[in-house]
Amino acid sequence: MISMIMKMSGITVLYIILTLVVWNFTNKVVLNRLQKIMIGVVFGISSIISTHFGVAYDGMIINVRDIGPLAAGLFFSPTAGVVAGLIGGIERYIAGTYFGVGSYTRIACSVSTCLAGFVAMIMKIKMFDRKKPSPFYALFMGAVMEVFHMYVVFITHRNDMRMAFLVVSTCAVPMIIFTAIGMCIASILLQVLSGEWVNPFQRIEEEKEPLSRKFQKWLFLIMSIVILGSFIFSYILQTQTANQYCKSLLIRNFTTLESNYELHETNLNADSNIEYGIITNERIILKGKNIGATLSEAEYKKIIKNLGSVGEGTFFGVNSLIYARNIDESNILAVTMSKSEVYWYRDAQAYEFALADILLFTVIYVLIAYLVNQIVVNNIQLINTSLSKITNGNLNEVVTVRSSSEFASLSDDINQTVVALKGYIKAAEKRIEQELIFARTIQTSSLPQVFNFPDRDEFELFASMNPAKEVGGDFYDFFFADRNKIAFVIADVSGKGIPAALFMMRSKTAIRSFAEAGGTPEEILIKTNEALCEGNDAEMFVTVWIGILDLTTGYMQCANAGHEYPAIMHENGKYELIKDKHSVALAAMPGVKPKPYQLKLEPHDRIFVYTDGVPEAINEKEEQYGTERMLEVLNTTANISMEETLNKVSASVNSFKGGAEQFDDITMLGFEFIKLLEK
Questions:
Q1: pLDDT value of residue 167
Q2: What pLDDT score does 442 carry?
Q3: How far apart are CA 84 and CA 71, in angstroms?
Q4: Domain ranges in the chain?
Q5: I want to staple 529 with a disulfide (CB 3.0 to 4.6 A). Which of 213, 231, 318, 592 is the partner?
C-alpha cells in the first residue's frame, strides 16, 4: 500500500511539473493551431508513458493516464485536449490488443482516455468560457473521468462480473483519488502563478457572492444528498435480497443433502458455492470438504445455538452464513456459504450503481448549471450591462433581453422607466434652460450696455462679454467716480456657470459701491477684498484690474489684483503690454494690498483690457491663442472705432479656435482718450 502511494504520488507530481513547464512557455502568448496540436502531442505522449509505466497493486496495474488529456484541454486548449486524448486512447487500444498490455481493460481504458479529451474540450468551451477551471472543478473533472473509466469496465464485461468487480474494487479508489488530486493541485499552482488565486474557504459576503456560484453550491449539496440516500436505500435492499437468496439456497441444499444421506448414498454433492459438513457429537467431520477435521468448540457451540435457522458464524475460520439441523441422534448436517460469496454480487452492483449515480449526477449537475447560466445568469448580466450604461448616462440604451416572459417584462419595465426618465430630464433641462436664459438676461442687464455719452466727447469706449456657458464669471464695468473722473473695471471670477455668476454679481456690486464712495484704486480693492473674504465658504476668488482716469489731466490711477496685463497704444504707436505689479486675486486671502501705479494718457491714446479667455483660447491642436497674436490684431485697428476693434479681436479668436470648444469666458473693454476735459 505504502509503495503504491509513493509511486502514484511521484507519477502525479511529474504530470503537475509537466503542466507547469508547458504553462511557463505558453502563458504570455496567444496559441496558434500548430502550438495547440504540439501541446496535445506532449500530453498524449505523457499518457502513453503512463500506460507502460503503471504501478503494480494487488495484482493489477494502475495509472493516472487521464490527467494528460484533461490537463491539456482544461488548462491550455480544447484542441490540445482532443489531440492528447486520441493519442493516449488509440495507443492504449493498440497496446492492449496487439501487445498484451492490460488487454482485459483495453476497451474501457482507451474509451475513457479518448473521451477525456472531448469532455475537456466541451467543458472548456461551454462551462468555463475558455478559462482555466477552479481547483474544485479540476478535482471534480479528474474524479468523474476515472469514475467513467471504472464504469466502462463493468459495461464491457457483463459476462464476467466477478473479474470486472475485482478490477474495479482494486483500481477505482487509488486511480480516482490521484487523478482528482493531480488536477486540483495543478489548477491551484496555475492560479497562484497567474495571480488569480482566491482562497475558496474565505467567507464571502452574501451580496458579493455570484448567483451562479450560490445556485451550483446548493445544487451540488441537494443532489449529493439525494444520490447518497438512493445509494443507501439500494444497498440495504440488495443486502436483504442477498440474505434471502442465500437462505433459500442453503435450505434447498440442506434438503437435498439430507435426502441423499437418508438413502445412504456415499457421495453427497452440493452446489459449487456451498460447503457442508456432517458433524459428530465429538465435533469431527464425517463427510464434507473438511472430512476428518475437528471443528473448534466455539464454532460448534455457535452452530448448536442456531440449529434450525440460518445464522452467522465461522466454519473453519471462514465468515459464513450457516444452516444446520440434526439428521440423526448423533450427527448434525451444517450447510454454509461464505459471506464473500453471499455478498460479492451485492458489492459489485453497489460499485456499479455508485459509479452510475455519480455519472448521472455529473451529467444532471453540468446540464442544469449550464442551462441556469445560459437562461438566467447570462441574461441577468446582459440586463446589468445595459443598466450600467444607463446609469452612466447613456439613456439611449435599450434593454432587449426577451428570452422569457419574465425577462421580457423586466426589459419593458426598464425601458419604460428610461423613457419616463428621459421625459423628466428633458422637462428639467427645458426649465433649467429657461432659468439660465433668464439668469443671463439679468447678468447682461447688470453690465453697462450704453457706450455713447451724448454730452461727453472726451473719450470713446466699448465692451463685450461672451460667456463659455449660459452665464459666466467675467464682468466689466465703467462709471463716473465724479464729474471729472471715469472708472474702468474688468474682472474674472474663478470657475464658470451659476456659482461664478453669483460671485461676479457680489464682486461687481462691492467694487462699484466702494469706488463711488471715493478713494484710490488701491483702497477700493483692499476694501473689496475684505468684503469678499467674509463668508467665502466656497473659496472662490476674482482677479480685477481697475483704472480711474482724470479727464482734466489725462492721468490714470491703476491697480491690478492678479489680472491680465493691460495693453496700451500711444498716438501713432503700437499696442504694448503694461507689465504692472500684480497682487494675489481678491478673496483668495485676507490682507491683500495691490500695488498702485499711474499712467499718463495723451489724446488718441488707447487702453485695451481683457480676461484670460482671450490669450488662453485653445484651437483643435490644443495651441493657445496667446498675447502676441492678440497684439498683432490690435496693431491693425489704429484707424477704426473701439467697437470695431473688439469685434476684430473676437473674430480673430473665433477663427483661431475653429471647431474647438470655448472653455473660458471672453470679456474685453476698449477705451480711447480723445481730448482733455476743459475745466
A1: 92
A2: 79
A3: 9
A4: 2-198, 241-345, 447-673
A5: 592
